[in-house]
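Quick one, tokens below. Sequence please?
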């Protein structure tokens, strides 16, 4: 018997209010959509808030859809010695209905509540709602497998109080390389820590200024959300630069108050590749050796020509 089990996880951190996920089987196509894509549920300690999630079955067949609160998916790397209990507050969430049948094209509103315990300290807490559907891969085949499309909706719970939105750079303060090769596209990994107690949208920029010159550029990097107690790596592809020495700094903007973090200026030397330097050095050495020993070479050449006659 042919059995096919497929698990598809669709990330929904988009900038629009509605997101959709598709799982393409042989026939038919299964499509679900939810709105909003991210649920922001601020609540004080001891408070209970209700939220609504709109779910639409855009498939051509009826679908049973189950909803389950789960621990949040952590993006980035946990900073050493950090606890992760704040990333699993799924027990705070109570869903009004676990499973319902959705007719083709039907839209329903799911109501759920978030209850923050009195003991919760100020800061950000995280969970997600997992929506799963069960359908035949191909209703026309007796031995059709099963398809489990899944959508995850992040739930962000912020408990008011003493909010810390601090972001920091590695302790050694060294970010950029000392030397960069003009001929090779080089990528610098920049590590940023969220040492605060709430999620933070971080926007990095790299500024380069050539010494003894008016040349200066700013390279914006893609913004990202850092969860508290995590580290994120931002990739900085070095642009094409003329040879010379540059002062380079990293500028970070983050938090609700747009706080600024600026790294210490580092020196970046841009030049040709090491192999090109060695080749040039060998050529210069050969020319200098020939010039320094030109009289000996001339005498040796004359003796050689005389002996061959």
């Amino acid at each position: 018997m042919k059995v096919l089990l497929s698990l598809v996880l669709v990330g929904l951190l988009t900038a629009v209010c509605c997101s959709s996920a598709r799982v393409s089987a042989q026939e038919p196509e299964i499509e679900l959509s939810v709105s909003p894509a991210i649920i922001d549920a601020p609540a004080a300690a001891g408070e209970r808030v209700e939220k609504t999630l709109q779910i639409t079955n855009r498939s051509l067949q009826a679908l049973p859809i189950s909803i389950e609160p789960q621990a949040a998916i952590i993006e980035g790397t946990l900073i050493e010695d950090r606890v992760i209990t704040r990333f699993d507050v799924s027990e705070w969430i109570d869903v009004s209905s676990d499973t319902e049948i959705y007719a083709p094209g039907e839209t329903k509103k799911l109501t759920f509540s978030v209850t923050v315990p009195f003991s919760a300290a100020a800061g950000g807490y995280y969970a997600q709602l997992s929506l799963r559907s069960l359908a035949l891969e191909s209703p026309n085949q007796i031995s059709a497998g099963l398809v489990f499309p899944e959508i995850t909706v992040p739930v962000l719970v912020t408990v008011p109080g003493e909010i810390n939105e601090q972001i920091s750079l590695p302790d050694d303060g060294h970010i950029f390389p000392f030397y960069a090769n003009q001929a090779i596209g080089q990528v610098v990994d920049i590590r940023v820590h969220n040492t605060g107690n709430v999620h933070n949208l971080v926007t990095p920029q790299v500024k380069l200024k050539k010494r003894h010159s008016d040349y200066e550029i700013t390279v914006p990097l893609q913004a990202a959300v850092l969860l508290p107690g995590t580290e994120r790596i931002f990739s900085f592809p070095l642009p094409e630069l003329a040879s010379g020495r540059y002062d380079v700094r990293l500028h970070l903007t983050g938090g609700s108050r747009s706080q600024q973090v600026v790294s210490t200026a580092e020196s970046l030397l841009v030049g040709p590749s090491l192999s090109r330097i060695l080749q040039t050095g060998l050529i210069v050495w050969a020319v200098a050796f020939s010039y320094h020993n030109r009289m000996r070479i001339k005498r040796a050449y004359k003796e050689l020509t005389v002996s061959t006659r």
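The chain has three domains: 5-159, 167-271, 276-307. The CA atoms of residues 60 and 104 lie 5 Å apart.
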